[in-house]
Amino acid sequence: GLPANATRTTLRVVVKHNPYLDGGVAFPNDVVSLSDFYFSRRVVQAFNIWLNFVCAQPKADIQITKTAVTPSVERGNQVSYGIAVRNNGPDTANNVVVTDAIPAGLTFVSTSDNRCSQVGSSIVCNFGNMANGAQINVTFTFQTSVATVCGTVPNTAVVTTTTQDDNQSNNSSTAVVGVVCPVSADVQIVK
Predict the structure, then answer these.
(1) What is 56-86 written as a DSSP string?
(2) pLDDT in tens, 45-76
């Protein structure tokens, strides 16, 4: 059989007998096996043969959805984002990679999937191959600090695959977390 990663190929063989070649030899029902093409010179001479190869390129619609697990957090606490990666098919998506740029002011703490790790200023997940209909869910946790901007903190993740993906509109997703900064009060007593 074919290897698991082989490209699907359709082979159409059109065979027409030419009675003017090879002494007008007739073949029963004008049917000949593919092995004859390789081993019988007589068959090649007696037939006009056209081979039409049609290669179907595998395709996969890979989709990513990002959510804010903690929609609002006070600065100094931890914040979490959730990511769902799904292959909508129709074929297997090969070499699926998610890249999540760490927002300024956040420090990466942990991930729920050991296939994800920090690489420079991003979290990179190497999910390998995903079958049609497969879905992977992962959560990233970050620490806020005094360097974290008060207000909304957007976080964008992008997914890629080496398989042809004609729908690029769902290959990135952004979630927003609200960071609340404590209000400090300067109380002075004058007597």
Answers:
(1) ---BEEEEEEEEESSSEEETTSEEEEEEEEE
(2) 444 444 444 457 899 999 999 999 988 888 88
